[in-house]
Amino acid sequence: MQHGPAVRRRKLGAELRALRTSAGLTSGEAARLVGWHQSKVSRIETGTSGVKPADVRLLLDTYGVSDPQLRRLLLVLAGSGDGGGRHHWWQAYRGVLPPTYRDFISLESQASAMRTLETTVVPGLLQTPEYARAVTAAALEGASEERLDALVDVRLARQDVLRADPPLELSAVLDEAVLRREVGGPGVMARQRQRLVEAARLPHVRLQVLPFSAGAHIGVTGPFVIFSFSRTSDLDVVVLDHLTSSLYLERKEDLRAYTEAFNALSIHALSPEDSLDLIAGTAAGV
Fold this sequence. Notes:
Elements lengths: L3 H19 L4 H8 L3 H9 L6 H10 L5 H10 L7 H4 L10 H12 L2 E6 L10 H11 L5 H14 L10 E7 H5 L5 H15 L4 E6 L13 E5 L8 E5 L4 E4 L2 H17 L3 H12 L3
Parallel strand pairs: 1-2, 2-3
Antiparallel strand pairs: 1-4, 4-5, 5-6
Protein name: Helix-turn-helix transcriptional regulator
Organism: Streptomyces thermospinosisporus
InterPro entries: Cro/C1-type_HTH (IPR001387), DUF5753 (IPR043917), Lambda_DNA-bd_dom_sf (IPR010982)
């Protein structure tokens, strides 16, 4: 397990190495074309050192990479502030957001699909403002009103990925406890459940509920997120959230294990139609 920046460096390096190979260049030839020492190209490709977005652009130009989506994604991995995705709006909150959260948002903004298991709270992309504030206030006891306002603003701004063109494809499995846990009071929960009903009807959102009757399941160890990218599966990553940081799993065996776990949870969960009925029922107080 690694923190986001280390994972991003390695993934970026691996993709740049693949692009160089596809261009028919050795690392030495690539270095000569851009005016670098070969060791710099090697360090970038192995992820042992960071790389500036300008250097990534230079390499992509040298390798003849014109795909705008791939260029934007690789610039995001390099930490670019202008690689796309509404010009990285979250940079305006640098004083409020920890680096791990900014890193998570940067991946979310460029992902084509997101699969998530939530066992305690509604996924951030589906939270109402009131619910988001109640969850944030509980997680950051004693936080100032100004900080809570900023963090709620960030949570709501993240939801724009569901309204993008094309939108993020979201598949979420929610433990029934998410629907039953009263966050912020009955009124807040009633509006939050209604929001879930509305979201579940969107064509790019697949929402399933894992009922209490399913008993113990593979997800009891905690929530997780799997980000997928349309250009290449080699950039897919699993994110595990902890109280003070996020950890990233990038090995193929880890991705396979969490993908299989999500698929198993989807099988044991209610169908999207039955899940919608359950959500609607809890919204009605059933």
